[in-house]
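Predict the structure of Amino acid carrier protein.
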Amino acid sequence: MKLAKVVFIFFMLSNFLYGQDETITNDNSLFTADIELEDVSQAIDDISVKVTPKGGRKPYKYIWNNENISIYNSSYTGWSEGDSVKVIVIDANDDSVEVKGYIKPNSFSEYVNNAMKPAVEHLQNILFASVWSDTVSVDEYVLKAPFALDAEKKDYRLKKWVKKNGEKVKHLEVIAILKDGDREFPFYAIGDGTLQYGKHDGEIISSNDLVYFTNKRGNRSEKKLGVINYDSPQPFYFKNLTNKSQGIPLIVVWLVCGALFFTFRMKFVQFWGVRHAIELVQGKFDDPTKEAGEVTHFQALVTALSATVGLGNIAGVAIAISMGGPGATFWMILAGLIGMASKFVECTLGVKYRHIKEDGEVFGGPMYYLSRGLSRRGGGFKQLGKILAILFAILCVGGSLGGGNMFQANQAFNQLAEIPGWEGFAAYGLYFGIAMAILVGVVIIGGIKSIAKVTDKIVPAMVAIYVISALTIIGFNYDNLGHGFNTIFTGAFSPDAIYGGFIGVLILGFQRAAFSNEAGVGSAPIAHSAAKTEEPVSEGIVAVLEPFIDTVVVCTMTALVIIFTGYAQDPEGLEGAALTSAAFSSSLGDWSLYVLSFAVVLFAFSTMISWSYYGLKAWTYVFGETKTAGLVYKSIFLIFVVIGSSVGLGAVIDFSDLMILGMAFPNILGLLIMSGEVKNDMIDYFSRIKSGAIKKFK
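Done. Here is the predicted structure for Amino acid carrier protein.
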């Protein structure tokens, strides 16, 4: 009896003492959990979710059906309306309970966004279907404290290490105790391996050290608390403990294989044809007395460039580097070089099969060479051509309203709203959209000639602003230029395994390049078909300069800036355009944020006016080449400018952006079939150049 009393007293005392520490509290009651969901506003993607465990034994782990939410998070704001939330709560006894939640959309924008999600998912399943996939394995796991970026956490520290430096640890074993003010909670190991304490400013991180530091921008960034070295490669874990897989998307394979095929089929025309391309842009072969069309070679080039040089160069490169390291840049450059051949083939056909009305207005692009070019082959090709042309036109109209319009307006507005001191500007999205729509409308009402007159001034100006800023930073670091290129090259062949190894970085680089220069997508031939020339091959030659300027030159400069400013090694949690902006401002000062923001607005504006032309020609192909049909499309386009600036329609923009990539399927299929005639035309054209049958006029 006495022994029983002693045991009981010991149990109660230990329960009282340990109960003071939240990390090891024991509760023998039934283990359950409640979930609360709240729709914060009428805007999209702002559902607030909170999970409250009851009973069981603390601490708890939270496994969300969202890979970006940490196992430490019991709440999250930013869930999308119409999506099902599922959270598995696991206590210290490894007992678990599952809670689910769902909130219906309750506003127009929420209903539209939710209704578009199945279409986005379906298109993503097609475009990004993996032709090969494997689990990403890593050799180590970098330990960074959760919540360290929360501005409300003023006293966030490492209380103590539970495991010693160099000690073996197991997956989800407690390795340290973290302290958030008076609250304490465990820090878990991820994977089985050997713990190695981290260093900051040369000192090993130890008890009572803050787990964050002030970065170059004056913001809080997570310290590298340590690393777990694996004895053999283990799966890479997302924040919710699911595994990362690396796949090769079908759309990337389609674009890259097409580009490689055209490179060899056209005998590497993108390299030996550059000199002649420059002569054509300079107007040395222009015959003003004979050639039909609406714009010069140079105007056609800059109009097409205005649609590709833009956010892909600013944000796309930053995304590639933050996800795949500097080595991804090498594969972007290579993809740009082979993509030049795709541009040659599609833009040659764009001029060859264009349709010119009596008033001189040109109608051209993949819709016309797919239908006209394939119909010449007779049989089933005629029907195939019609189907591919209609499919391309529908995708092009959708892409022009989303990726070529709403996305551009939205990003331009957000860039301005993020300028320091301009925080209040975020409330004026509607007015910004109206102003942008008026400016765009003034230009596009006049057709391709008006668009060309604007782009041949804006594009050189905006590229000059961006390139001069980049060259200034590169000039400051010219001593490190060799190191910068070496970083890119070595990173391409020996990348950090966390990004999927060699294959992962290669695919990432190709993917971002394809999204940036649109080689093979079929948009550029619409602009180039309006060129004043009677020689289709000449315009194809001019088009090879596009991916070179867009990807090889501008993207490389962006990458070097990010490398030289140190953001390639430590992105500080920044992504996309924000990362590029931080790199520029850290070297040139905050004034560069205004310059870069101005450049982004110009990029967006020029992209919108060019894509309005692409969408217009696709629209009139379907609904008739009439002034009325054109006016209807232009009115719709301008309305979508306002919508893109003032309303959050995430899934709508995602879907229409994916439609741009979808254009590559019918386009490249047609290019492959007609590549033989393009090759014959190329041989004939250069033989006439050599013989003098085609003369210089300047």
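The longest strand covers residues 224-235.
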